[in-house]
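TL;DR need structure tokens for one chain.
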Amino acid sequence: MLKLFGAVLIVLAGTLAGFQRARQYADRPQHIRGLIAALQRLETEIMYGFTPLPEAMRRIGQQSREPLKWFFVKTAEEMSPPHDRSAQDAFQRVMEAHWKTTAMKGTEKEILRQLSCTLGTSDRTNQSTHIALALQQLKQEETMAREDQGKYEKMSKSLGLLLGALIVILIF
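>> reply
TL;DR here they are.
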């Protein structure tokens, strides 16, 4: 009876691990889409609202869903008094602390890092150009993330279950 209970737990753990991995494949396109929408709002705030960057980040954070909400709010806090950090420093600090809570990968992080180098350091049209470039790159990443989701989401679920069953077979 105890062996059966252990076998069920092992299969369940493998299945849950597979479902967790599959969820990451499903969440990545959604997070990228949310980031694209947030950057489009940032571009609007900069170009037409003449909003200071920390306030624009705070507004975007309030309008966004988790995990991006926390990302933009914390970036705004880092750029505001008493910290008064540059956009590049604020983005870097928040990305280091927060990036693991998202399903996004290093390529999206690098796109944001490159964008942060120009935010707040150039005129509005130049910032708009860099945001448009980041948006284009993120749209390409979203397309690839959707392809990965289609390829690997179902496979991850199945492999989790099969791996759990394999471990049970090998143990018993």
